[in-house]
Amino acid sequence: MATPQQTGYASINGLRLYYEIHGAGQPLVLLHGGLGSTEMFGPNLAALAAGRQVIAADLQAHGRTGDIDRPLTYEAMGDDIAGLIGHLGLGRADVMGYSLGAGTALRTTIQHPEVVRKLVVVSTPYKRNGWYPEVRAAMAQITSASAEMMKPSPIYKTYARVSPRPDDWPVLLGKMGDMLRREYDWSDAVAQITAPVMLVFADSDSVPVAHMAEFYGLLGGSKRDAGWDGSGMQPNRLAVLPGLTHYNIGVAPSLAATVTGFLDAPMPGPAT
After folding, report:
1. What's the distance, CA 98 to chain centroid?
2. If DSSP states are collapsed to H, E and C, what string results for the chain?
3. What's the CA gap between 178 and 218, in Å, rounded?
4. For residues 94 and 247, what is the distance between their CA atoms, to the nearest angstrom?
5. Are 18 and 58 spatial neighbours (Cβ–Cβ below 8 Å)?
6. Nearest CA to 257 among 271, 270, 269, 244?
7. CB atoms within 10 A of CB 88
8. 16-53 in b/e burial notation, b at 16+ Cβ within 10 A?
9. Of 84, 118, 235, 253, which is least packed with CB atoms within 10 Å of its CB?
10. Digit-coded pLDDT (tens) for 177-195
11. Domains, the chain
12. What is the chain's mean pLDDT, rounded?
């Protein structure tokens, strides 16, 4: 695990939101997946921080950020991340999230486009029905009653080690289940995003490849041939990483290697 140069708590929307800062340069806010924490990206955090300033945050009720009397929703957590960007005086930051963090990053961009320069969405659909049916069925089974059964898992052991209130584990499971059972479809809002977006999925993800293509299509991708000189390329990108699943893409070295070129590229100029 990379050692942060700075850690802190930001008072945002009633939360004490934990964050840590690695590296220097263009800021990238990095958001973990469900039930996880900043540790979830493994060596990719250090790899990303080699060329930029990475601000890794623990979302509501996750990791070192305690819970508050508020449901878990993508919309509220999107507001939290926009608040963190303002708190740290970052102006416009790149935002990258995985799974739960990707949904949060997407909502941050939709709700607060003025604070997001580029967006990287890793392994999440734009609507609930984008998950495979068996994944949705498993999500529907997550309740506070699941908490005891999950205590032998590595994800709980990390939570118990870093959480300010480890006894809140059943509360987190209950709130996560409520959020994951909620229907959503953000297709209209996704189609209005103007920041450059990169979608990254595993080829054996929890999301069908057909949905990945639909997501990319909402962003203007896959509409026509780019031409021999690439002049017809649009600013958004789609990457499907081979030999990976939803559960190991976050720590796969190919993830940082894939998104770095997109993040480093100059911002596109105005359309002509």
Report:
1. 4
2. CCCCCEEEEEEECCEEEEEEEECCCCEEEEECCCCCCHHHHCHHHHHHHCCCEEEEECCCCCCCCCCCCCCCCHHHHHHHHHHHHHHCCCCCEEEEEECHHHHHHHHHHHHCHHHEEEEEEECCCCEHHHCCHHHHHHHHCCCHHHCCCCCCCHHHHHHHHHCCCHHHHHHHHHHHHHHHCCCCECHHHHHCCCCCEEEEEEEECCCCHHHHHHHHHHCCCCCCCCCCCCCCCCCCEEEEEEEEECCCHHHCHHHHHHHHHHHHCCCCCCCC
3. 27
4. 23
5. yes
6. 244
7. 17
8. ebbbbbbbeebbbbbbbbbbbbbbbbbebbbbbbebbb
9. 253
10. 999 999 999 999 999 999 9
11. 6-263 (3.40.50.1820)
12. 96
The answer to whether 19 and 30 are in contact (CB under 8 A) is no
Contact 183, 128 (CB under 8 A): yes
Pairing status of strand 197-204 against strand 237-245: parallel
Residue 201's DSSP bridge partners are 240
Distances (CA, A) of 271 to 73, 235, 249: 35, 10, 34
Distances (CA, A) of 118 to 115, 125, 131, 212, 265: 10, 18, 24, 19, 10
CB 123 within 8 A of CB 249: yes
Question: Lowest-pLDDT range, 12-21, 55-64, 221-230, 240-249?
Answer: 221-230
For 100-123, write each residue's pLDDT tens digit: 999 999 999 999 999 999 999 999
**Dist CA 104 CA 106 (whole Å):** 5
Can you tell me the distance from the alpha carbon of 27 to that of 85, in angstroms, rounded to the nearest whole number? Answer: 9
Provide the 10 A C-beta neighbour count for residue 141.
Answer: 11
Single-letter residue type at 259: V
C-alpha of 176 from chain center: 15
